[in-house]
Amino acid sequence: MASNSFGTHFRITTWGESHGLAVGCVLDGCPPGIPISDDEINQVLLQRAPGRAFVSERKEEDRVEILSGLFDGMTTGAPILLLIKNKDHDSSKYEAMKALYRPGHANFTYLQKYGVFDHRGGGRASARETAARVAAGAIAKKFLKALGIEIVGYIQAIGTVTATSIDFTHRDKSPIFCPDIAAEASMLDLITKVKELGDSVGGVVACQVAGVMAGLGDPMYDKIQARLAYAMLSLPAAKGFEIGEGYHAACMHGSEHNDGFIQKEGKTQAATNHAGGVLGGITTGEPIFFTVAFKPTSSIFKTQKTVDFEGNEVDFSLPAGSRHDPCVAIRAVPVVEAMCALVLMDAVLHNQTLMPCK
Amino acid sequence: MASNSFGTHFRITTWGESHGLAVGCVLDGCPPGIPISDDEINQVLLQRAPGRAFVSERKEEDRVEILSGLFDGMTTGAPILLLIKNKDHDSSKYEAMKALYRPGHANFTYLQKYGVFDHRGGGRASARETAARVAAGAIAKKFLKALGIEIVGYIQAIGTVTATSIDFTHRDKSPIFCPDIAAEASMLDLITKVKELGDSVGGVVACQVAGVMAGLGDPMYDKIQARLAYAMLSLPAAKGFEIGEGYHAACMHGSEHNDGFIQKEGKTQAATNHAGGVLGGITTGEPIFFTVAFKPTSSIFKTQKTVDFEGNEVDFSLPAGSRHDPCVAIRAVPVVEAMCALVLMDAVLHNQTLMPCK
Amino acid sequence: MASNSFGTHFRITTWGESHGLAVGCVLDGCPPGIPISDDEINQVLLQRAPGRAFVSERKEEDRVEILSGLFDGMTTGAPILLLIKNKDHDSSKYEAMKALYRPGHANFTYLQKYGVFDHRGGGRASARETAARVAAGAIAKKFLKALGIEIVGYIQAIGTVTATSIDFTHRDKSPIFCPDIAAEASMLDLITKVKELGDSVGGVVACQVAGVMAGLGDPMYDKIQARLAYAMLSLPAAKGFEIGEGYHAACMHGSEHNDGFIQKEGKTQAATNHAGGVLGGITTGEPIFFTVAFKPTSSIFKTQKTVDFEGNEVDFSLPAGSRHDPCVAIRAVPVVEAMCALVLMDAVLHNQTLMPCK
Amino acid sequence: MASNSFGTHFRITTWGESHGLAVGCVLDGCPPGIPISDDEINQVLLQRAPGRAFVSERKEEDRVEILSGLFDGMTTGAPILLLIKNKDHDSSKYEAMKALYRPGHANFTYLQKYGVFDHRGGGRASARETAARVAAGAIAKKFLKALGIEIVGYIQAIGTVTATSIDFTHRDKSPIFCPDIAAEASMLDLITKVKELGDSVGGVVACQVAGVMAGLGDPMYDKIQARLAYAMLSLPAAKGFEIGEGYHAACMHGSEHNDGFIQKEGKTQAATNHAGGVLGGITTGEPIFFTVAFKPTSSIFKTQKTVDFEGNEVDFSLPAGSRHDPCVAIRAVPVVEAMCALVLMDAVLHNQTLMPCK
Over chain D, what is the mean pLDDT? Predict the structure, then answer.
């Protein structure tokens, strides 16, 4: 398919199946001279790892090994192979469902497209692939941080429960990346209830990028919001994307939505930020703000009607004891951050091609 | 910037400024043997042309000339140069605003990025660039139609007025592509009122694709919804994208959202279509459904506060007699269709690389 | 085919047929702030224009029009459309050969691949496409010159006559870009004789790049010599490429071929330059030296045996009065320079993505 | 650098350093349904493996592990991770040369470009990277073979000793892939003598592709010869490329070089094949024939003059007992075949995008 790559200058190509030997990626285009270690990446990987409270119980250690591209602890400009071994994979649970079309699941479409589907743990369609994105994103985040760019994702809503106050200190302690202590309690209740029902629920992840310089993104097809939308909708279960006021902008008047410019501390900047940090596809220097909507996890214990490969109607429910995320949006938070980092990293490197040469 | 191209196999590169000599694109990768004429493309271009009621008064004929790639009225496999001359461009109106930062407009960010901005008619940042997308999209639409694929975009909302019934017959007659005759009346009222105020309003465009085969789109980064989101957020003024239930999916339970499979007329298909025609990034064969949110036009006659290039506060309003779209979403409808056609065309050609070779 | 583009950062997409309305290209990725005019490009275009002594008699003015991407005479970072109208095209001569397979010509393979061939003037297969390369290359050359990089192509051999002394001053005056006044006389004799016979002859173009900085080119697939070879073999009639000692290197010992390093004027550099200015795919700072072999023009007046589309044997010769280049290598000289400039320009911009960010 | 990938549709990204943990590649874009095993690939890898007579003594097993992309022994369309562990790497020999510029070697240019060089075994600059190319090429070769395409590389010359008769049966038994039993004896003598001198010698590899269909390759920048030249000049030590008559074509007349067409067995084909199987960049259906010139190995035991990183003159020779290939062209034969397979595979898949859709 040659479509397992993301990015142009800072480019990852991910590979691996959920129940194969390993998942990982090659990162090509990383500038030389960046200090990187397995440990740093593993710290970031921990955030999306299954096994945390309220998410899937898969006991995966998710430890990355760096097989290439480093010398004396620094990047050399050569491609970096990141490998995460799969340890805890019991494929037996998947035998029962290997010959039926799972509702809301990709096995139907993979079979239509490729004529073959690796049913063990969802194969390539598993969200486990996102571990490789997070590992590569950790390197991008480190690079961006040195430029003063900070990316913070958080849970904005789970089902109809919405965070209304934003406290990043709380977000960092929250088991569900929620920045609103009051909303968090209701969210946890909701998740518990949904889990008891053997059901799942959707959610919205928000992401804010502070410290971003003006001038990132290209004005035509590689508008920064277009690249972000592309990145976010490439995530499993993502169904929507907004930048700035998003859909609310459709209800606004130009006189309300336009951000006027002011002079502040000797610098021209926007007085408000309805735009979400972008104008004409290029960053303004104000914080970037966007959200991503996630559907409820398709794998549920509740019984659903479907058909098998012969077309016979069958009742299907996830076998008891299967791994199961009641709300996939939670674990998506670090993945949203990682994809955002990959987009920005690419834009930063891309901008360097515009500079006068020496 | 090398980012004025869209598509991989069926690839356009657009060029041209609003008040330059012409705008247009090169279309590379068009299969040979497709009959195409200027007239056909011009029919489609008419739909986005300014000068229609309720949109900008620019009297542009928007007539395409095909400079290459045809032989005996058929495509040859060679690149097709589509050229649309600019005739009606009076740049004098733009003199007054060439040294101040226009609220909600891209001149601030272009200057930050490139150090230069062609202020005449908005230069490259003008929505006029989308004429080239529509011209190329017309060729894709023709190709797709031969495969039975029909793309229909329409106005779903203007401001807070939403279409609630969908009648495509009415949509085709509507001056604002609205499929709901009752909502249309309220929308027209709203636009008239907003126009009188010298203001603008946002809107939502929906798009439905019928007759699409299963198997389009790639499961990882080139999920069909990711490519669509990328295409849509690359449109001027676009602020949001949803596929299927979109943000509403975040409020649903898995047991509600999952589309079960049924056997119908000897074929397995989804019983419902909450997914909007995609699973795991690949089309299911059900209609694709997505929406795009557009902000209100940033160019308004109302006075706004901003600063000039020296940082002095100034009151700014669009000079009387300037061209002005009170709701940019309306003219976006054929552009949304065109971008959707480019995405699907690419996916169709891409799928051919998966086939067993002869 | 989506393969009419060359370059990654500084990227051209050419279009147009020999007897169509125009040929040209879009140049995307040109940095902003470069002063460019039609006149400058036309000066360079003159060098490859037909109508010069000893080459094809086509009376084509080859005047470029810049339709986009400039503001106040400077590049803006937006795509640049270069258009060269076709004026002198009498397609009647081509009627006689439209239904037979021309020896050494591409109509056979185009028909095999696309099922259609625009026989008028060779259509897309005509060397006229290279005018667009030269026009874009003129911009790259200007940019590179500002960095101190000078690209000089010349005729090294025509048939078996080889230039043995290199005098660039003479090269600039030579009607055939020959740097050796003695060899030039023999070459002109040879061309005259071949022309009288209605035949053609091959040749070798050499190219030397002085003033190039160390560090251009990437060590794996985008070795500078690999990009140059790709560029050169994409030229019509090119059959071979050498860098440095080229095929002669195969006969050398390592102890002869290796260039030792010395310290000179406080700088480490190679003592000799057998390598032709590259090591491990990356420029050393020594002059780049490469050659390109061109086959004899396939269009000749001599009678040749071939078959028509029905498979009947026919005698074929170019109709009297047809345009005809007795040695295509001569006009290839400025095209080789242009392609070299495009390769180096891309490498220069690419290197900027490796720099530490600010 | 984001330039460690080769191919568009069938795309490899290689990674790994000579003395790192492993080398390998991700292969993306492989069609589903191709049966592949580790063993098959290992058979092909054996051909380039060090440890064969007359090549480097490195005792590397070169056994590939397939970490992803297979299901039930068949490709699934998902990316295939090929991993080859490095076992025999003693980096101590390289300590002595880590602070001087090795003549003919890439450490000078890597340091100029990246500011860092992994000197252990040559790091990323080592020819060991080509093992990953051969492994991926084995999959392409299998696919192509099913289409009837056979790629055979061989030694055409070592130093000034040239194979004059071509016997592929002998080539398959020859320790140096030489198709001429008489020339082989002289070649082996030459290699032995060069080795005794602690020196090295260059060579020429030829490659013939039989059974190739007409229509492969694109007429402009992706001419099949341009892609082949790009692939071949990306090989370590490659200095020249020819297709068909190559440089000899420069000495020919059009009336000699043009291949007339004839009708044979109901099919139009070329009567001769001076062109080497391509016209206008597209395959004719005749065998493709090309050669690649390789310089003598830069690592030699003979003493050479160079400077250290401080600019002091030093005498340098490879430490006794170092691994050393007296003629790098020999081991290049399977790598040339692999790169040729990757080019053709890409062209075959690419052609499918031209077909009328169903």
Answer: 93
The helix (run of H) or strand (run of E) holding residue C138 is helix C130-146
What is the signed CA dihedral for B235, B239, B245, B248, rounded to 10 degrees?
180
pTM here is: 0.96
Chain A: give the shortest CA distance to residue C82, in Å. Answer: 19
User: What subunits make at least 3 CB pairs under 8 angstroms with A?
Assistant: B, C, D
In whole angstroms, how far apart are CA A340 and each of A235, B63, B224? Answer: 12, 40, 19
Indicate the residue type of D204.
Answer: V
CA distance D209 to chain A (A): 25
* D124 near A CB under 8 A: yes
Written as one string, the DSSP assignment of D248-281 is GGGGSBHHHH---EEEETTEEEESS-TT-SEETT
pLDDT band at D52 (very low <50, low <70, confident <90, very high): low
Q: Is the pLDDT of residue D31 over 80?
A: yes
Nearest C-alpha of chain C: how many angstroms from D344? Answer: 15
For chain B, what is the mean pLDDT?
A: 93
- Chain B neighbors (3+ CB pairs < 8 Å): A, C, D
**CA quadruple D258, D259, D261, D267: dihedral sign:** negative
Q: Cβ(B3)–Cβ(A218) under 8 Å?
A: yes
Chain A residue numbers with beta carbons less than 8 Å from the beta carbon of C9 are: 353
- CB-based contact (8 Å) between C124 and chain B? yes
Quick one: tokens of D255? 């009336």
Distance (Å) from the alpha carbon of C73 to chain D's nearest alpha carbon: 30
Q: Using the beta-carbon criterion (under 8 Å), do D239 and C223 form an inter-chain contact?
A: no
Distances (CA, A) of B92 to B21, B120, B319, B322, D94: 16, 8, 10, 10, 70
Q: In this complex, how many residue pairs, one in chain B and one in chain C, have their CB atoms less than 8 Å apart?
A: 149
Q: Give the list of residues 6+ apart from residue C306 with CB closer than 8 angstroms, or none.
A: C100, C101, C102, C103, C313, C314, C316, D260, D261, D262
**pLDDT reading at A104 higher than 60:** yes
The one-letter amino acid at D225 = Q
Q: Is the ipTM here above 0.85? A: yes
D24 vs A: CB within 8 A: yes
Listed in sequence order, the residues at least 6 apart from A264 whose beta carbon sits closer than 8 Å to its beta carbon are none
Q: Using one digit for the tens of pLDDT, what is the confidence trace for D296-352? A: 999 999 999 999 999 999 999 988 877 778 999 999 999 999 999 999 999 999 998
Closest residue in B to A273 (Cα–Cα) = B104
